[in-house]
Specification:
3 domains, Nucleotidyltransferase, domain 5
Length: 429
Amino acid sequence: MRVFCGIDWASDHHDVALIDHDGALVARTRIGDDATGLQQLLVLLTEHGDTENSPIPVAIETSRGLLVACLRATRRPVFAINPMAASRYRERHAVARKKSDHLDAMVLANILRTDRAAHRSLPDDSELAQAIAVLARAQQDAVWNRTQAGNKLRSHLREYFPGFLAAFQHTREGLCLPVARVVLAAAPTPAHAAKLTRAQLRSLLKKAGRQRGIEAEADRLREAFQITQMRQLPKVEQAMGHQTLALLRQLEAACTSADGLTAAAVTSFDTHPDAEIITSLPGLGSLTGARVLAEIGDDRSRFTDAKGLKAFAGAAPVTRASGHPGIRASGHPGIRASGKSLAVMARRVKNQRLAAVGYVWAFSALSSPGARAQYDRRREAGDRHTAAQRHLFNRLLGCLHHCLTKRTVYDEGTAFPSSETPVLKTAAA
């Protein structure tokens, strides 16, 4: 008898439901979110036919947490069902739209019983790949937090100390630059900044790690802080300086976290067997490579072809057509559409983290002659910069999938043949 398991996850307890192939409930229980609860679950599964060779599949509404990690360690298929999808299935079993933890557990189990083929189990990634995923995602979150903290501080400085922003607007890092943070900590108001001497500025530059051009930079900063500017009232300015120091501490913490996680992610990624292949592609370094590996994993059975990977990353467009069959899309012989209504649009539902690193990857890859030629062809065909970048990202994902599948490093001549004909513009852009 085939049995399916559904688990309604909560913060302190979990409801478990087991159903057979006919949809009949064979067991139900509530377990705690601890080792004892996990043991109860494993015993319950064993009593209903769970074996090492034929484990009972489990459906749950999350892909994270200790319970999921322990279930994956038992080598059983675990399906992370999107809560929005589960809510749609619930309407098939409860016309009155009632909701309970037990009903949700049964709904999840029935999803596996009826539509298991339409869902994908969590990938069987290695322990190292899972660790890289934790570090790379945390690093990306830290970068986003650093950007948010920098924007808050910049907005606050604009209200009473725009001269400081003007002094560092030429740098790419802006307020995240160590020199900017050190100087702002020493002079959080225009009054303090105007009193800084050249000797004090030289000392602050050395403290921030500056080694070259200290004299010239100290003179430049002193002149910038001496420029006449609009000011708040003295006490108001002093109060806003205290707020600046508070916001600066948040920015300092965000910068330190981002730097530490970057080093940890790069170190772990460089030890992975796929690191050499991934970084052989143009535009991918150790950090961006770690972000890519974190999202695609190292379970090569996860994406059987490049099309699935491209759709997962949001690089492949979505084609929507309606009407009579047999109409070929005008101007693009590779797509068969239905009827006269045809829309080719950018994919919105995607892995946002992989899509975010994709644009960085595509932009950095423009140093490659083949990638640059591909980008230029799309631009000449009428694509805007973002659309051309997305198309290049789509092409590079195909190259990555081929290299990882064949266990070979990237080859420019194979990826972008010199005799390649220009691609036609689609309505997708």
